[in-house]
From TrEMBL:
Pfam families: MFS_1 (PF07690). This is MFS transporter. The keyword Membrane applies. Keywords: Membrane, Transmembrane, Transmembrane helix. Residues 13-387 form the Major facilitator superfamily (MFS) profile domain. It is found in: Cell membrane. The chain crosses the membrane at residues 17-40, 52-72, 79-97, 109-130, 142-161, 167-187, 208-233, 239-259, 271-289, 295-313, 320-339, 359-379.
Amino acid sequence: MVGTSAPAGIAGAPFRFMLGATVLCFSGYALLLPVVPLWAERGGSGAFGSGATTAVLMATTVATQLAVPWLLVRIGHRWVLAAGSVLLGAPTPFLALSADLAPVLALSALRGVGFGLATVAGSALVAELVPREQHGRAAGRYGLAVGVPQLVLLAAGVAVVDRFGFTAVFVVAGAGPVLGALLVPGIRMSGATVPTTAGPPPRPPVRSALTPVLAMLTCSISQGGLITFLPLAVPDAGLLVPGALLGTAAGSLLGRLVAGELVDRRGWGGRLLVPGMLLTAAGLMAEVVSLGAGAGALVVIGAVAVGFGFGMVQNDSLTVLFAAFGSGGYGAASAVWNIAYDAGTGVGALGLGAVAEPFGYSAAFGAAAVLLGVGVVVARARPGAATGRP
């Protein structure tokens, strides 16, 4: 690394501008995550086709994320974040032109490119803009910027569609990320965060990344399936589904904040992965029981548990990966983390949709819980997995 100036830290203006851009970017993402599958269903798609909209979004997101560490070195974090925000938002209003599956999938793919750019650049900036001893709390605040839009808008999207229609939602969801791009010039990076070479970042030991990536994948599959299919599994339930979506977003937000404090102040980095996976599995089983009993308050309780468990895993896994890759590889660590997150979301939407089509939504949620259980067994079977330390 070159330069003598230190990162400004979590109280600095660059970090705050990054958080503001993140809030606006994720507003456009969160608002549509449960809405686009409903739009595709209106166009005649079944559960599999509706789930494919999220799967395609995540597939192009992941494909893009593979190239982002290279782009970060060559054109810089700010340009990548701004370009991603515009690509995520600008195509969104065109969804209103047709509910047929083909154009919806095409626009979802384009938005996925933007989301892939923005997510890797944003989470890499978490490490680049603050000193290492603040990584846990910085990741928690980044989780706040990611979680607040989901806390409000995952539930609001379905409710606003019922009140104002799909077109209004598409226009608002498109405006947020584009406005976020206007904040990017305020993210001024210190000389200490500029890489000295354009070569590839150092490669961490594979074993250091296995447990956090496994935890992210299994939890993301679970939450991705829950968010995509809960509105379809509990139709005409009044405020129950918006309440559950609000609950999973709130749980995720709280889980990330709690984990950030425990990582920085208690030194528990890596120790929260397995507990987070177990809590996520318990939440899914609560959903299975609730659907079998005709839904009810347990739908909300289970969603909160899924969100809190996944929130713990999100924060802890990100800090573990930053440590494993080192200061020269924050972009690569961010890409690995985001790929695990978004690939899991896509697999959850498509794979659990394939289970739900013939067997029902209870079977889909139960399959995700079993997958988490297998993940816990594999993680604990690895040497050192009990603490999750690299």
